[in-house]
Design a protein that fits this description.
15 strands; 15 helices; Four Helix Bundle (Hemerythrin (Met), subunit A); 4-stranded parallel β-sheet; 4-stranded antiparallel β-sheet; about 15% strand; Rossmann fold; alpha/beta
Length: about 450
């Protein structure tokens, strides 16, 4: 397996720290609002990473945090005259609901920052004692100049950094790149007691503690959106480096940006959509298919036309499964060489830095074999079972009973296949008028017939 490592900027062979085990951490939400569709891309992708490793037989420990104390949460609470706990709990619950609606499996551990406050304070204390952090007026900052490896993830060196958009200006810092580990309290804010006075932790420290608590000093994969490389992930890694002399993670994976109709998502442009908004319009698996149809590191443009294409493609899979009554096929070991090759092709695509677009092509080929059995020596039933198996690895075919019932009633499928066989017989006998009438009558009912040299296929319009 080859993974693109943000740190090295190249594909590397994946070698787990412990054979047969995967330790994965992916950044979760800051719960001050509903998460947007760009966040959904990251959450869905790392759900697939987790599913694929489990399919390969790995014992996966997947940790995703919830940041439930942050400036944005406090600002929202003050604006609504509520306690920050109320805001955090409401949107944390909404996050879990929306993830479930998207078919995202619950992680192995999902810690919240406020649950690990003693560990956070202990980590900051160790950084101060080792001269990697310093206190100024009850605030504590990480001393970036104390760590030779600072910048190894993002490529940003401290000598090149000046106060600006991504580096906060603060006269108390030794260097503009130094970042906050502990913030002293302001009137009306939530506080915790610490050796430096009452205050609260910085975001970067929270994630270090939550990841290491469940995964150890160094783990296999750390993931998130590309916007988190700097400063968040760089600053996480710096703290781990300072304390252990080791990187926080061996492989860093980051998904690309999402644009809306060719433009950056922005509330001012009125093209800001939450996952909850989109789920009101489109099926969760359609959204999943849309994201997986593009390589995770590539930017992707969210537009209605592409979503509708994803909807049609997914419908094609369900129609193929429905046509063979896949739920009633007796379980058996798949041995056909063509079917097994489809699985190998799927694995080769996924092993190449999670090329889900190419993996989806394997699913299309299987569905095509089901609808056009004369082109493939493999049985329709075996193709359907493999389509089901590989599709589940990508997170499709959840609630299969319900979805197949909604695709089209079993009897309707059988009747259409029967009518199509009569039409094929008419074509073979050159009864073109009869053939054309059957085609036109079915089209009037919303069933589109497509003729090709190998036979005929049908689909709902």
């Amino acid at each position: 397996m080859k993974l693109y490592n943000t740190k090295s900027r190249r594909k590397e062979e994946f070698v787990p720290l412990s054979p047969g085990k995967l330790k994965l951490y992916a950044c979760g939400p800051t719960v001050y609002d509903y998460f947007h569709i760009g966040n959904a891309r990251a959450f869905l992708f790392f759900d697939v990473v987790r599913r694929y490793f489990e399919y390969l037989g790995y014992e996966v420990t997947y940790v995703q945090n919830i940041t439930d104390i942050d400036d944005k949460i406090i600002d929202k609470a003050m604006a609504e005259n509520k306690d920050f706990h109320q805001i955090a709990q409401y949107y944390a619950t909404a996050f879990l609901e929306d993830c479930a609606a998207l078919g995202i499996a619950h992680p192995t551990h999902q810690p919240r920052a406020t649950e690990v406050m003693p560990e956070i304070i202990a980590l900051i204390k160790r950084l101060v004692e080792s001269n990697h952090a310093y206190e100024v007026d009850h605030d504590v900052y990480f001393d970036t100049a104390s760590l030779a490896e600072y910048g190894e993830l993002s490529g940003k060196k401290i000598e090149d950094q000046k106060a600006g958009a991504r580096v906060a200006e603060n006269a108390n810092k030794k260097h503009p790149a130094d970042f906050t580990l502990w913030k002293k309290s302001k009137p009306g804010e939530p506080v915790w007691s610490s050796p430096w006075g009452e205050g609260r932790p910085g975001w970067h420290t929270e994630c270090v503690v939550m990841s290491q608590k469940y995964l150890g000093e160094t783990f296999d994969i750390h993931g998130g959106g590309i916007d988190l490389v700097f400063p968040h992930h760089e600053n996480e890694n710096a703290q781990a480096r300072a304390l252990t002399g080791k990187p926080l993670a061996r492989y860093w994976m980051h998904n690309g940006f999402l644009n809306i109709e060719g433009e950056k998502m922005s509330k001012s442009l009125k093209n800001f959509f939450t996952a909850r908004d989109i789920l009101k319009e489109y099926d969760a698996e359609v959204i999943r298919f849309f994201f997986l149809s593009k390589h995770y590191r590539s930017p992707i443009d969210f537009n209605r036309e592409l979503i509708q294409e994803a909807e049609k493609a997914l419908q094609n899979f369900y129609q193929a499964l429905q046509s063979v009554d896949v739920l009633n096929i007796p379980e058996h070991k798949l041995q056909d060489s063509e079917i097994l090759q489809s699985e190998e092709d799927f694995k080769a695509a996924m092993d190449d830095d999670f090329n889900t677009a190419k993996a989806l092509a394997c699913l299309f080929e299987l569905s095509h074999n089901i609808k056009n059995p004369q082109k493939s020596p493999a049985s329709k039933e075996d193709s359907a079972l493999m389509l089901l198996k590989l599709g589940k690895v990508l997170g499709f075919f959840q609630n299969l009973n319900v979805r197949l019932r909604n695709t089209m009633p079993d009897l309707s499928n059988q009747l259409i296949e029967l009518i199509l066989s009569y039409r094929n017989e008419a074509r073979a006998n050159k009864q073109w008028a009869v053939s054309d009438k059957i085609r036109d009558d079915l089209q009037a009912l919303g069933i589109l017939i497509k003729d090709n040299p190998q036979g005929s296929t049908w689909e709902r319009r």
